[in-house]
Amino acid sequence: MKHVVWFALASCLFALTASAQESYFYKKRMYGSEALFNPLSLVLNASFDIIQLDGHSRAFKSIRYAEGFSNVLRNITRPFGPISRYGWGNFVADQILPLHLTRKDAQWWPNYQLHLIGGGMNYTMLREWYHVYGVPSPSLFAIGTLAVKALLNEAIENGAVSGDNVDPIADLLIFDPAGIVLFSFEGVNEFFSKELNLADWSLQPSLTFAPAALHNNGQYFSIKWRFPFSERWHLFYYFGMNGLIGLSYKLPDGRAISLGGGLRAKQLVLVNAATNKQTLDLVWNIGAFYDKDNSLMASLFVSGLTDYTVSANLYPGIIDLGGFTPGVWIVVARGGKLLAGITTVWAPGLGIKTE
């Protein structure tokens, strides 16, 4: 155990000694998805990511926080027992190295996408956000914010499960610290920001009441890799609870239109009750996107989900009400149930729903 703890601590110390040379992901653009980025929106989008799954309650009171935190802490403070019972070979092949390629065994895939790359990018973006707004020790605050986000995320995902759970061991003790270290290097930030145009295109989290619940949340990222033979066309990849691949066309003024299709998570499926090994049931999904300077301005999704069959988001900068530019969103579920909401730059949005 002491070795993984030292790894996590050394990762944080390394990050704290690194200094950013320029802003890579946060440019203080007051339009689009970047305008909504802040520590609170990051926590609401990322920590509560799992409630996007079909049929999952979005009510805050239904989340088993105490049981989740207790079981996650039990596993990450005594990781060798759960790993041994899971099997060291299975743990490495399922969670760490891309050795198992089947859907029920490839738990390493979200670890690399969301924790290593996404989490690392968010470390740099948070550090830049804190620096822009004059917060002292921005690297320290960025690490602290990510720690809160990550632990809350694992607790909510764990829910009421009591027993072995190796997923938070891989996430919290390996991939999250590794992401911070990786994105502490200027060359890595430059590659992902300038060559791959990596951006945080998360949703617009909004509160509804009776009961208090969170809607239209979710952490998502986009990558646009320019084809060597073209100045305008890019290979497009959008990922989070889904994976869409397609094409993006960049206009001369910095705006871009992107289209993609693929799969998204629908429900969790229990593979092994003894080790709490889970996989995801997937459904089809297509999306269309409009961005300005890599800050998402509008998106439209149509999917095989029941709850969020059609969803559209207009980010700040599209609607102008005398200088006030809110974001708006609308969701249509099967059966005609509607949800809609309005968001602002600094506070979570407010939503309404029909029964």
What's the SSE blueprint?
Elements: H1 2-17, H2 32-35, H3 39-47, H4 65-77, H5 80-86, H6 88-96, H7 108-132, H8 138-158, H9 167-182, H10 186-195, E1 199-200, E2 206-208, E3 213-215, E4 221-226, E5 233-239, E6 242-250, E7 255-272, E8 277-292, E9 295-303, E10 310-314, E11 327-332, E12 338-343, E13 349-353
Parallel strand pairs: 2-13
Antiparallel strand pairs: 1-4, 2-3, 4-5, 5-6, 6-7, 7-8, 8-9, 9-10, 10-11, 11-12, 12-13
Helix pairs in contact: 1-9, 3-8, 4-8, 7-8, 7-9, 8-9
Report the strand count.
13
Give the biggest beta sheet: 13 strands, mixed
* Shape label: globular
Which regions are unreliable across 5 or more consecutive residues at pLDDT < 50?
1-7
**SSE pattern, N- to C-terminal:** HHHHHHHHHHEEEEEEEEEEEEE
Q: Helix share of residues?
A: 25-40%
Taking strands numbered 1, 2, ... along the chain, how are they ordered across the largest sheet?
Answer: 1-4-5-6-7-8-9-10-11-12-13-2-3
State which percent range the strand residues make up. 25-35%
- What separation lies between the terminal Cα atoms? 49 Å
Q: Estimate the mean pLDDT confidence.
A: 92
Query: In angstroms, what is the radius of gyration?
Result: 20 Å
- Counting helices, strands and paired strands, the structural category is alpha+beta
